[in-house]
From TrEMBL:
Superkingdom assignment: Bacteria
Organism: Simplicispira suum
Taxonomic lineage: Bacteria, Pseudomonadati, Pseudomonadota, Betaproteobacteria, Burkholderiales
Name of the protein in question: NADPH:quinone oxidoreductase
Domain Enoyl reductase (ER): 11-322
InterPro entries reported in the protein's UniProt record: ADH-like_C, ADH-like_N, ER, GroES-like_sf, NAD(P)-bd_dom_sf, Quin_OxRdtase/zeta-crystal_CS, Zn-ADH-like_protein
Molecular-function GO terms, alphabetical: oxidoreductase activity; zinc ion binding
Entry-linked Pfam families: ADH_N, ADH_zinc_N
Spans traversing the lipid bilayer: none
Amino acid sequence: MHAWLCTEPTGVDALKWTELPTPVPGPGEVLIKIEAASLNFPDLLIVQNKYQMKPALPFVPGSEYAGVVEAVGPDVTHLSPGQRVACLSGTGGFGTHTLAPAALCMPLPKGFPPVDAAAFIMIYATSWHALIDRAMLQAGETVLVLGAAGGVGTAAIQIAKAMGAKVLAAASTDEKCALCQSLGADATINYTTQDLRDAIKQATGGKGPDVIYDPVGGEFTEPAFRSIAWRGRYLVVGFASGPIPSLPLNLPLLKGASLVGVFWGEFAKREPKANAAMMATLADWYAQGRIKPVIDRTMPMAELPAAFERMGSRAVQGKLVLVN
């Protein structure tokens, strides 16, 4: 097998395409032949030693992937060789093969292409957990999605629309705003050329959004929160812009608003039955055509450094997927 090996987490340039022995699955593990793996923001942070999870060196990055089970560990009974699965295990995806915890593998129904499967779990699980579980979104409410043309942003638009909400999508270019409209956004804001607070006020008739979905952080957090509706819920999803913002705590008081943390990975560990039910519903929604990952492009696995460069330039719309 071959894989992109990280021996020192000093950045993308330190990754090397390396031939490695094909591993044998142990208890609770499966060997997966990887067909596709998607790029997520934590994949960049982890090779820069900036992510909360710091795997032992050396390691193969790549948190999310899909492929075919080639072998199973001695105590694995719910998966079998030849079965197609998707997995989000945190590492291991940027290669030709990987060992994955069987408990984290999502069996794929027929007609679920590997490229879509590799781009599915993180964005839809995060967005469902955020909007439905944490924000308790109701039909008719207004959702503001920041970073709306990214992976989790596009998923959030689709889930919010499926729930009957009105969606206000904010992104950094007119092209990205057009993508959001094609996914069903009712209105868009280009926060590079428009004042965010003024645009929110105009789009919501002065009321403000009931729910704000924020995977971006940075400079937009405070003006967005200042625009939230009475009893609004502000979802802290991530910090793709880099800086972790500070927020004056008088703002939640004045708006009677809630600041809500979203950590899907921990939810999946602590509440596995609820997570499994959620994933089953999401798979049904995909089969029904209610949700579908937006694929920016596919690139060969050997072009991982170029893929990271494209993601780092903020050029990606939806998800970028590497294929073997």
